[in-house]
């Protein structure tokens, strides 16, 4: 039997019946056996199947005993090398009320191609972040546990005038190591309800090398399903993930709301984070996608590293814009719009202490970042260099670029002040570059030793804790070049050197 429209292909199928009817044809009994060769229905397939049953029907009551077996079961999500079902069925009052009971046993559980491909694709898309090692370990552990795995359990399907229900007293999947991959207990699904299916029961997921997840499903007032989940810390290399609590509620319309907390450690683009605590507050629906954080939340971390910058324990208040949630998905993909009332961060840049404070900040991804009133204090208590930035705009991407203005740079080792600075900036591969720089240079001494000078094309580079800068200093009115300077300043030691060129004469010295 072949039907291309339905994706159906059935071969070598047949059934044998031996039935005896009662004299009035109001009952009877008999046996049935069936066998089928390859069966394909869409993306699902069975290599072979067989079964037999003995049925008695009298006085509007049905009693049946059956056995069914199949080999080579495959679907996009999972497959089984063999499955056997042994059960019975009873009914009263015709078929208006019946119980179907079955015990099942399977072996050779394996990931389906679609599921394995999805895991591999998500791991590749998370390359360079904590997502990759976590998914790679889960994928490898599932593949290893599938060898010698088994499935066992029992279920009862009940039909009555009150509705239909499925009860699973217990079911378990065990991996090749003998450890449980999935266990269900006291699971009940009420299929006939004006509010939709209602589900209650307990589940646990685990296994050698796999995360341990436990939870309970139960009905909630006005909701179709409430799911409470907990996952202790799961480690993969230097990455870790934990869900101390997560509650998911499905509404009758299908929308899913969730609330909880995640704790993460591992690589992030351009660096690493340890002890990141992320509140999980949002909802999802098939129509509008995901919406995360409709109100202000607080992100906390123990340590954050970006290239040579390391920040220690801190928290960041993050708030949504008036347009809705901080994170939203739609036809154009995932969009992030957030605001921060201010930041206060401490840590180190290389071996130098650093303290960063700011006024309001706004982030849009894909898009830009804008920060006001940034103050950076860099260096030890004995020699501190200060960077004061009135406004900083940036374009987010693999390379961070943007512009700054209304800025002052006060290097401790240099008795000169760089004021009203503006220009372009770029941060890539741990290197900060300033270009197209304009500023006014003034003497820091109380009694000025020279008149202020200006620059229009200065450049600065910060890499490996060392600042190098070049500038042409000019007289403000005539713009005549007075001094050309090359500066090197080591933030670790506070020591620097400078080469100055004035009217063809070169001066150099230590700072």
What is the element layout, followed by pairings?
Elements: E1 2-3, E2 8-10, E3 14-21, E4 28-36, E5 39-41, E6 44-58, E7 61-74, E8 78-92, E9 97-107, E10 110-111, H1 113-125, H2 131-145, E11 150-160, E12 163-174, E13 180-190, E14 198-205, E15 213-220, E16 223-236, E17 239-250, E18 256-268, E19 271-285, E20 289-292, E21 297-306, E22 309-320, E23 327-330, E24 333-340, E25 343-349, E26 352-358, E27 361-365, E28 368-380, E29 383-395, E30 400-410, E31 416-428, E32 431-443, E33 453-463, E34 466-474, E35 481-490, E36 496-502, E37 505-510
Antiparallel strand pairs: 1-2, 2-5, 3-4, 4-6, 5-6, 6-7, 7-8, 8-9, 8-10, 9-11, 11-12, 12-13, 13-14, 14-15, 15-16, 16-17, 17-18, 18-19, 19-20, 19-21, 20-23, 21-22, 22-24, 22-25, 23-24, 24-27, 25-26, 26-28, 27-28, 28-29, 29-30, 30-31, 31-32, 32-33, 33-34, 34-35, 35-36, 36-37
Helix pairs in contact: 1-2
Give a concise summary.
This protein has 511 residues and is mainly beta. The protein has helices at 113-125, 131-145; strands at residues 2-3, 8-10, 14-21, 28-36, 39-41, 44-58, 61-74, 78-92, 97-107, 110-111, 150-160, 163-174, 180-190, 198-205, 213-220, 223-236, 239-250, 256-268, 271-285, 289-292, 297-306, 309-320, 327-330, 333-340, 343-349, 352-358, 361-365, 368-380, 383-395, 400-410, 416-428, 431-443, 453-463, 466-474, 481-490, 496-502, 505-510. The chain contains 2 helices and 37 strands.
């Amino acid at each position: 039997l072949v039907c291309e429209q339905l994706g159906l292909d059935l071969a070598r199928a047949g059934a044998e019946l031996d039935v005896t009817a009662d004299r009035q044809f109001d009952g009877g009994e008999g046996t049935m056996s069936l066998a089928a060769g390859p069966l394909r229905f869409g993306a699902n397939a069975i290599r072979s199947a067989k079964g037999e049953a003995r049925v008695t029907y009298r006085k509007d009551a049905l009693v049946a005993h059956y056995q069914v077996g199949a080999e080579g079961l495959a679907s996009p999500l999972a497959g089984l090398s063999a499955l056997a079902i042994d059960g019975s069925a009873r009914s009263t009052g015709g078929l208006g009320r019946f119980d179907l009971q079955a015990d099942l046993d399977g072996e050779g559980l394996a990931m389906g191609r679609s599921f394995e491909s999805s895991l591999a694709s998500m791991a590749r898309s998370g390359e360079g972040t904590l997502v990759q090692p976590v998914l790679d370990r889960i994928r490898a552990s599932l593949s290893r546990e599938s060898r010698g795995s088994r499935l066992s359990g029992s279920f009862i399907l009940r039909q009555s005038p009150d509705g239909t229900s499925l009860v699973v007293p217990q079911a378990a999947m065990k991996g090749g190591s003998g450890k449980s991959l999935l266990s269900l207990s006291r699971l009940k699904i009420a299929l006939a309800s004006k509010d939709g299916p209602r589900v209650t029961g307990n589940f646990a997921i685990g296994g050698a090398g796999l995360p341990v997840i436990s939870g309970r499903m139960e009905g909630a007032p006005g909701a179709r399903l409430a799911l409470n989940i907990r996952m202790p810390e799961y480690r993969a290399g230097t990455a870790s993930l934990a869900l101390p609590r997560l509650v998911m509620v499905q509404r009758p319309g299908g929308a899913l709301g969730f609330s909880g907390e995640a704790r993460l450690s591992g690589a992030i683009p351009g660096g690493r984070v340890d002890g990141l605590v992320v509140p999980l507050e949002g909802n999802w629906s098939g129509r509008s996608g995901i919406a995360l954080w409709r109100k202000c939340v607080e992100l906390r971390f123990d340590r954050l590293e970006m290239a040579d910058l390391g920040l220690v324990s801190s928290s960041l208040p993050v708030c949504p814009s008036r347009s809705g949630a901080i994170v939203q998905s739609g036809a154009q993909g995932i969009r992030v719009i957030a605001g921060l009332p201010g930041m206060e961060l401490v840590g180190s840049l290389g071996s130098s202490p650093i303290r960063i404070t700011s006024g309001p900040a706004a982030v849009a991804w894909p898009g830009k970042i804008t920060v006001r009133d940034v103050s950076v204090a860099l260096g030890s208590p004995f020699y501190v260099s200060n960077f004061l930035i009135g406004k900083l705009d940036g374009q987010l991407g693999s390379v961070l670029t943007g512009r700054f203005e209304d800025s002052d740079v006060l290097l401790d080792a240099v008795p000169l002040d760089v004021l009203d600075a503006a220009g372009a900036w770029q941060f890539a591969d741990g290197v900060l570059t300033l270009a197209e720089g304009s500023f006014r240079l003034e003497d820091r001494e109380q009694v000025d030793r020279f008149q202020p000078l200006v620059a229009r094309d200065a450049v600065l580079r910060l890499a490996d804790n060392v600042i190098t800068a070049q500038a042409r200093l000019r007289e403000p009115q005539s713009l005549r070049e007075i001094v050309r300077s090359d500066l090197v300043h080591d933030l670790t030691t506070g020591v620097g050197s400078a080469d100055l060129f004035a009217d063809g004469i070169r001066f150099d010295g230590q700072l």
